[in-house]
Amino acid sequence: MITEENLRRLYLDTLEKSLIGLLLEDPPDPHIPPAGFANAAPAFTRRIREQGRDFPSKAYTMIGADRMANIRRSVELALADGVPGDFLEAGVWRGGATIFMRGMLKAYHIRDRKVWVVDSFEGMPEPEIRRFPADAPWMPWAGRLSVSLETVKHNFDNYCLLDDQVWFLKGWFKDTLPTASIEKLAVLRLDGDLYQSIQDSLTHLYPKLSVGGFVIVDDFYFFKETRQAVLDYRAAHAIIEPILEVGGNAAYWRREA
Length: 257
Ligand SMILES: C[S@@+](CC[C@H](N)C(=O)[O-])C[C@H]1O[C@@H](n2cnc3c(N)ncnc32)[C@H](O)[C@@H]1O
Fold this sequence. Notes:
By secondary structure, the protein is an alpha/beta fold. The protein contains eight helices and seven strands; from the N terminus they run αααβαβαβαβαβαββ. S-adenosylmethionine (SAM) binds near residues 92 and 96.
């Protein structure tokens, strides 16, 4: 029988597969990483894509199926429990994870929450090595992963998901986040990789995360700078909720206090 629940599941499953490039078996692009950094596979490999371990040529997100499923569970739990607030990703690249968040609002007929799409839209920052020596390995990445605001808007539009429930915040996190008009967040996803990017995101956004909300940190188990920024912030703010793992890469916890 076709119920609304079945249709919703079908839409979200298909949206997710499309956004990660599974449907068209989108091959990895060897030119995305800088010289000296290789893509995880020379050709499309289903398991690698599902684990989000390569840079797709065309797909709108690089995070793979395991981490998309984590977004879906977090959003569904936040909605089911009535956790107040918007959904946000800081570090969006082509926008796929945020398109998925917007698709979830649509699938659940939610009109009173927004999706915040936060990025430089000019690629990775040049690391401030004097202040953040841990970020030195990110030097070759400065300006990489650059996707313009217009392109990300176009990507939303391709899925008929560009509307007034999607808010874009363009610029470096340290400049945009302190004064952004974000009030409350129910799901906060951090994917800026550098120590400074994660620290700036947590400093300005974690205080806006509702109790019962989720914070998700991409690459927590992959980049030591990302992990260290999270551990330092947790220690400084006496955050003790257990850190949970997603597919050997991301980490998340649910705010309890
Ligand atoms: C690994 S990509 C994000 C991948 C994306 N979440 C996805 O679903 O495919 C990192 C993104 O973070 C952005 N970024 C990193 N540090 C930033 C900063 N300090 N300010 C603004 N954008 C930043 C980059 O422009 C890039 O788009």
